[in-house]
Amino acid sequence: MSVLIAPSILSADFAQLGAEVKAIDEAGCDWIHIDVMDGHFVPNLTFGPPVIKAIRPWTKKTFDVHLMIDPAQPYLEDYAKAGADLITVHAEADKHLDRSLQFIKSLGKKAGVSLNPHTPEGIIEYVLDRLDMVLVMSVNPGFGGQSFIESQLEKIARIKRMIGSRPIDIQVDGGVTADNAWKVMAAGATCLVAGSAVFKTKDYAANIAAIRNSKG
Ligand code: DX5
Ligand code: ZN
């Protein structure tokens, strides 16, 4: 199956966010990646549920909501109601990860867990059967436009082995470009997030295609 491309709207023009979401939809993206930051778990602030609700009518594609907030649990229902289809929480920001994952599923949404670059993959071993996705952070979260951390390639490969035949996506987020996407896919990624590499020029279709067709 071909890789899923999820442009991060962190790099979009916030003054016209609805139109930007429509533009990446029409440019052939698979999911819309929405980076939620709280100024506490990460040193930046972004979108609350009202913003997600406002852009929901602009596309039918999957809203992939990456919560970089601590705690996430009190806000899960708000993000689900705002229009998230898949909700990802950070393992480092959750003392009760298993409970949060069960709650996301009870809301009828897909559930993901994200790991910061320093976090070993073993932390997800006992929640694997509750997961729809594992998100490997290939930069330290908080900002777009950072460089890919090469050590995460080994982590992606290890997670692929842990997952085995389970239907769990491996998403990779941070510093993904048309130049390095091929090795991220080769390691086992099934979904690539890209912010600056998609929004760097107005030809979003060409930028998405370049990542999708990346070759070493
Ligand atoms: C970082 C975010 C990423 C980021 C990716 O905290 O989770 O989604 O926006 O941006 P690029 O592709 O520019 O590294
Ligand atoms: Zn993200």
* Number of individual domains: 1
The CATH topology assignment is TIM Barrel
Radius of gyration: 16 Å
The poorly predicted ranges are none
Bound compounds, please? D-xylitol-5-phosphate, zinc ion
Oligomeric state of the chains present here: single chain
Write down the secondary-structure element order: EHEHEHEHEEHEHEHH
Give a short synopsis of this structure.
One of its GO terms (biological process) is pentose catabolic process. This protein has a single domain (4-212), classed as TIM Barrel (Alpha-Beta Barrel). It has 216 residues and is of the alpha/beta class.
Please characterize this protein's 3D structure.
Keywords: Carbohydrate metabolism, Cobalt, Isomerase, Manganese, Metal-binding, Zinc. By secondary structure, the protein is an alpha/beta fold. The protein has one domain: Aldolase class I (TIM Barrel). The protein has eight helices and eight strands, in the order E-H-E-H-E-H-E-H-E-E-H-E-H-E-H-H. It has helices at residues 17-26, 49-55, 76-82, 97-106, 152-163, 181-187, 196-199, 204-212; strands spanning 4-7, 31-37, 62-68, 86-90, 110-115, 133-137, 169-173, 191-194. Helix 2 links the parallel strand 2 and strand 3 (62-68). Helix 2 (49-55) runs parallel beside helix 3 (76-82). The longest helix has 12 residues, at 152-163. The protein is globular and about 40 Å long. It starts with a strand and ends with a helix. Bound molecules: D-xylitol-5-phosphate (DX5) and zinc ion.
